[in-house]
Design brief:
heterodimer, A: 262 residues, mainly alpha, MetI-like fold, 77% helix, B: 273 residues, cell membrane (chain B), MetI-like_sf (chain B), ABC transporter permease (chain B), transmembrane (chain B)
Chain lengths: 262, 273
């Protein structure tokens, strides 16, 4: 094959693959703008009314706020638990370090739907904890493995003798951590926050069973809405959410080279 | 390395305890439920589960779709990864970014697109009725094909990422050398590329397979109750019939499968270093 033929073949394969991966989003953006009362593609007439309607649906507003709150506070809580754990696993010679690592990473291996069901049945029902609190804890636990992994990998590049030097020069251990370690792993912590936020916000299976009257995460609410209504507003909302994720990831990539950490 | 073990444990234990209480304990109780089905410890829950034809069908379908999706992803993944590695550095980053981006987008949004494509008034049906191939729209949603397409779109990026990073490690001149020495492209693939990217293939394959196995949204939206998979069956069993024994059996199947896939991954990762 001559070079220009090969070039053409290369881009044909890539073009097909990328349109399979990305095409659906373009379709969804347009389908959300269709003037019909039902889903149609190609759109029949263009309108922004479905994009605007999304903001007026009461349950979407409530579930969006819940999902946001879960993603922000769940991820913060996971970092609060995960940063010290990652630090300890990297810097200390701990007995059973491998077991600790496995326990902290376990939530990734167990399918979310099972976790949600188990929490509902053996925590919410017997103890009477509210569903919201259970959701918060489930999302924290879900993000924890990512927090530990991303922070760990940014910590392995940091030489331990810098802290030792700080301690020798008169810092307390806590000061050595806040003044030497933390500034150096800041990028990793931020990357972990973003990854955790996106993971938690998009998470469905964990929250499937953990929903009660008026307590639903946004993806679950969309699933429920879809079952009764066929108008294009879910397409519009899906498109808006896709834009939101892209904006977050793009900003993160620009500001801190997000992909280095993930 | 610091020697103060107590200090280290104080830092690491909160995370471990949290994870134990919220994950290990409730999940283990759930798993034990199937063994306590008849009032005493037995395998009765499992026997009952597998003696129901529907459950067997769903179990086999989940396995089949998992394997099919992983296999197709591998074929497309090799072609795409090979092209990406051959790009110039600038367009390589851009194309790679476009492969990764969908992973950051809500699976609900990603799956919903297929309703637009395959639905009664979707593109495919509009084309079919428009061309006069059929008078009535075909039922494309709620079929195994729909679930297959949805899953493939969801997890293909994982395969491409794994294969690209494996191919980047193939020494530059190996493939031209094999060609110069007379190997056909087929021989190059099976004797050079495949052996050198085996690890990437296994990693990508496991990620795609476990992903497909444990996906909920795709079978729920595109398969509905016509094409149940293990996850949607579990949901139905709990919500419709309050059947926690079946739920526990399905949970065990899913955990055993994704756990063994993870063990495999770990072994490969350690064999390399």
């Amino acid at each position: 094959m001559n070079p220009s033929m090969r070039h053409l073949a290369n881009w044909t394969i890539l073009g097909l693959t990328l349109s399979f991966l990305i095409g659906p989003f373009l379709i969804i953006i347009l389908a959300g703008a269709s003037a019909t009362d039902y889903l149609a593609f190609p759109p029949e007439g263009l309108t922004l009314k479905w994009y605007l309607k999304v903001f007026t649906v009461e349950s979407f507003r409530a579930s969006f706020l819940l999902s946001m709150a879960l993603a922000v506070f769940g991820t913060l809580a996971a970092l609060l638990l995960g940063v010290p754990a990652a630090y300890a696993l990297n810097r200390y010679d701990l007995p059973g370090a491998e077991t600790l690592r496995t326990i902290v990473a376990a939530p990734i291996i167990v399918p979310g739907i099972i976790v949600g069901l188990a929490l509902l049945r053996y925590m919410v029902v017997p103890t009477g904890v509210t569903v919201t609190l259970a959701l918060f804890m489930a999302h924290t636990a879900l993000v924890l493995p990512y927090a530990v992994r991303v922070v760990s990998s940014s910590m392995t590049n940091l030489r331990a003798d810098m802290e030792e030097a700080a301690v020798l020069l008169g810092c307390s251990r806590l000061q050595a951590f806040t003044k030497v370690v933390l500034p150096n792993i800041r990028g990793g912590v931020l990357a972990a926050f973003i990854l955790g936020f996106v993971t938690s916000f998009n998470q469905v299976p964990v929250s499937l069973f953990l929903s009660g009257p008026g307590v639903r995460t946004l993806p679950i609410d969309m699933l429920a809405y879809m079952e009764i209504t066929f108008d294009p507003s879910v397409a519009a909302l899906s498109a808006l959410l896709a834009f939101m994720s892209l904006a977050i990831v793009y900003t993160a990539e620009r500001l801190l080279g997000f992909s280095r950490y993930v | 390395m610091f020697r103060n073990t107590r200090e280290g444990l104080a830092l690491a234990l909160p995370a471990a305890i949290f994870s134990t209480l919220l994950f290990l304990v409730p999940v283990c109780i759930l798993l034990s439920e199937a063994f306590r089905a008849g009032g005493s410890w037995s395998l009765q829950g499992y026997i009952d589960f597998f003696s129901t034809p529907l459950n067997r069908t769903v179990f086999l379908r989940t396995l089949k779709l998992g394997v099919l999706v992983a296999g197709t992803a591998a074929v497309i993944g090799y072609a795409a990864a090979f092209c990406i590695v051959n790009l110039g550095p600038k367009s390589r980053g851009k194309v790679f970014g476009m492969v990764v981006l969908p992973l950051m987008i809500s699976p609900v949004a990603r799956t919903y697109a297929w309703i637009v494509i395959l639905g009664r008034t979707g593109i495919v049906n509009e084309a079919i009725t428009g061309l006069g191939l059929s008078d009535t729209p075909l039922r494309l949603l709620f079929t195994e094909t729909a679930v297959f397409l949805g899953l493939l779109q969801l997890f293909l990026p994982l395969m491409i990422i794994s294969l690209v990073s494996a191919m980047e490690n193939i020494p530059r001149d190996v493939i031209p050398a094999a060609r110069v020495l007379g190997a056909s492209w087929i021989a190059v693939f099976f004797k050079v590329i495949l052996p050198l990217t085996k690890e990437g293939l296994v990693i990508g394959g496991t990620l795609v397979f476990t992903g497909a196995l444990t996906a909920y949204i795709t079978p729920a939206i595109l398969g509905g109750s016509k094409v149940l998979m293990l996850e949607t069956l579990l949901y139905q069993r709990v919500n419709v019939s309050n059947d926690f024994v079946s739920a526990s059996v399905i949970a065990m199947i899913l955990i055993v499968m994704s756990f063994s896939a993870n063990l495999l991954l770990k072994r490969i990762a350690t064999a390399r270093s």
